[in-house]
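Example for tutorial group B:
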């Protein structure tokens, strides 16, 4: 019999197959999304729940900053390669130390992808947040 850990890894692999474009119909996609959120809450230990709630506003604040400096668009412009923090700081006119901190947080919540230390690329969420309607919603929030 397979161990619980190997079963979990197998299940994660199966679920990842459901993430591609058109992999699921809308009802199935929404049901899976709901189930994943419920599982996250079921699996969280108290410290993780407290941290999730404590930092909830950070996602929007970082997205707002990145909108203002057009960081999402800069990452998308470099979509076929990773970009260093220093390069991003030059293109966005941001302080490199502050930008590095914001990028690390953004990567931890999926807003951008960290490809290796001090290197960044666009995630699928980056592309979503750069859409005009989403930019406007973030700016208005």
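The residue assignment follows.
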């Amino acid at each position: 019999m397979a161990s619980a850990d190997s079963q979990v890894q197998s299940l994660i692999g199966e679920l990842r197959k459901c993430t591609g474009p058109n992999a699921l119909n809308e009802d199935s996609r929404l049901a899976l999304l709901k189930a994943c959120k419920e599982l996250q809450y079921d699996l969280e230990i108290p410290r993780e729940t407290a941290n999730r709630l404590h930092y909830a506003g950070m996602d929007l604040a970082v997205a707002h900053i990145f909108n203002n400096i057009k960081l999402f668009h800069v990452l998308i412009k470099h979509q076929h390669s990773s970009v260093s923090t220093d390069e991003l700081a030059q293109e966005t006119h941001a302080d490199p130390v502050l930008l590095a901190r914001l990028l690390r947080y953004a990567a931890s919540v999926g807003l951008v992808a960290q490809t290796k230390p001090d290197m960044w690329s666009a995630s699928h969420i980056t592309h979503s947040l750069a859409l005009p309607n989403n930019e406007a919603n973030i700016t208005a929030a």
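The chain is about 70% helix and 5% strand. Compare this with the pattern of hydrophobic and polar residues in the output above.
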